[in-house]
Amino acid sequence: MTAGAAELQSSLKQLQECRGNPALLCHSPLAGDLVPVLYQGLRSIGRTERLDLVLSTYGGSVTAARQLALLLREFTGRLTILVPHRARSAGTLLCLSADELVLTAVAELGPLDANSDAAEFPGPGMPGSISAEDIRAFPDLARDWFGVESDGLQLLALLSQRIFPASLASFYRMDRLIRQTAGELLEFPFPDPADEQLRARIVEQLVTGYHAHDYVLTRADVRRLGLPVSEPGPDADGLLWTIARQLDRLGAQPAGSDGSIAGLVAGVGFLACNVIRRPAGDAEPGVPEWQVDG
What we know:
By secondary structure, the protein is an alpha/beta fold. The protein has helices spanning 3-19, 34-45, 62-74, 90-95, 132-136, 138-146, 152-162, 165-186, 196-208, 219-225, 234-252, and strands spanning 23-27, 48-56, 76-83, 100-103, 115-117, 129-131, 229-230, 254-256, 259-267, 270-277, 288-293.
């Protein structure tokens, strides 16, 4: 265990004592290999009436976010997700499963529009990534910027010249997956059938209501969406900010002479690090591997 990880576990213990709930930290991209690691962390705590998850992530896989959310709900009747700084993209999707979101003043959530690397756009001036909303905005661009009124088939033919039709279908299916998953997870904080319109409105706003995937949703924005947002008290706020700074330092320090830390799951009696090993003399980046201690 690095000294930084030990300091982080100490801060988690103080947060747990401050709030009176078992606490687990997830600082990682949301991917399939995270699921069994989080499971081990949850098993170290056991099933509990209340659980605090401290979440720090730039995003990841939609299906992994769903798996993680459903796994967390298996271990607690009331889930609170605390965001010290960032829970973007698929991290925001995971947040929808919480009964309560505790957000600091600098917490950042983000839109849920489907994104993909633009492998088909290698030329100069082409975007590095493209989203489903970029594609959906094309008819509005043609009308608003150039006064072009065109029927749907003409626009589809034009798009298909630049984007492989199967890729367009993939964006469509991903958009449907995100909407379906977001609606499913929102049934945890809003289980009443009468809340169906509220859930639908939140999903629609998160998927289509912002003009950039990296748009920052602040605490006030998330509250206006209708999600159950709370502010941390002064003591918890200080501890969450300390944890955020510790995570920044931990990400910048090596795990050893031949590796660096790419992710971390931690509790008071549990620690797992996703370590990227870089063999000596190898210029290629190593493959991350989870190592569990506790």
